[in-house]
Amino acid sequence: MTARTDLHQHAWPVELLDALAERCGPGPRARQEGDSTWVLELQGEPDHPLDERQIDLHRRSGALFAAGLDRALLVPPLAIGLDALPDVDESRALLATWSSAVRGFATPHGSSFAAWAAVPAADPDPRDLERQLAEGAVGLALPAPALADAAALDRVGPVLEALARAGRPLLVHPAPPAADAAAATAAWRPALVDYPAQLLAAWATWLERGLDEHPDLRVAFAALAGGAPLLLERLAARGGPVDRARDERLVYETSSFGPRALAAAAQAVGADRLGFGSDRPVVAPGEQHPPAVAGLDPARLTTVAAARLLGESVAAGAPVAPALELVAEAA
How many helices (H) and strands (E) does the chain have? Predict the structure, then answer.
């Protein structure tokens, strides 16, 4: 049976929070308030409280099964810039702390949780990746700016080649907005402007160059690649590579989008290019059920794209409607 998968959750193990509490330099810090509440201090953003629901993976394990899911894949804290600290060695050490903590939880709890690997942005060393894959990581998570343009893609080329040799997938996830931009805007603006812009740039780079330069790599883009499937008519109108946007090596993870957008995305790229992700606990601490979308089988939403991405076998099922053919028009 194909595992029902949430491709995108986050974890805040106490071991990492303890390490962040000891930091003095720029970037993320943490402090404890009371017995079970922590507060993340993020540069240029309001303090972010974390309660037991967000920290305790034991609780989330039960909620996972209540939602009809078999497993969740945990993403390293790329959105707070843990991979991009000024001190590369500190980034490497904190990422290792996170990885060790979530691995220590996942191992005795069967296959309910697994983790994506991460490497320091300033030193994407294939040896770091290979070690984490050997320790059980399912693939590599990169911040979207690592694929922002051709030069960025070249910098991470060696680590992507190592990932492809291992037959493991890539997840592209937002990075934090620039500190000065975050400080000057409403709290909701990064999620509506900065994150989608990062993801769309990475997606465009991948269509233009990544698919050819790394043909064996399977890639998932968080948050529908910033809403990319909803822009395919515009892509067609500009003579862009619409067929590449529907390539079977690509998965559009669904977090933060609702039924209307997901129905439109399924029409644009095909239902089996969409893979369920909740972004829990960032988006919805108390809810992680796959959304009810007209015309989409929730069982397929949690299985088909995830299995293809992870290189697993896909159980036979009913055929789904193909993507719509787009006719280029002036826009």
Answer: 17, 11
Token pair recorded at residue 140: 């590599």
CA–CA gap between residue 261 and residue 266 (Å, rounded): 9
Cα–Cα distance, 128 to 142 (Å, whole number) = 13
pLDDT at 220 (0 to 100): 98
Q: Which residues pair with 49 in a beta bridge?
A: 39
Buried b (16+ CB within 10 A) or exposed e, 175-213: bbbeeeebeebeeeebbeebbbbbbbbbbbbbbbebbee
Q: Of 246, 253, 261, 224, which is closest to residue 324 (Cα–Cα)?
A: 246
Q: How far apart are CA 135 and CA 219, in angstroms?
A: 21
Q: Give the pLDDT confidence score for residue 323 in this predicted structure.
A: 61
To the nearest whole percent, how much of the chain has pLDDT over 70?
Answer: 89
* CA–CA gap between residue 290 and residue 5 (Å, rounded): 10
Q: Which domains does the chain possess?
A: 5-11+57-310 (3.20.20.140)
Spatial separation of the C-alpha atoms in residues 112 and 108, rounded to whole Å: 10
Per-residue pLDDT tens digits for 17-45: 999 999 987 789 999 998 778 999 887 67
- Looking at per-residue confidence, does 65 or 157 come out higher? 157
Task: Answer whether the bond into residue 281 is a cis peptide, omega within 30°.
Answer: yes
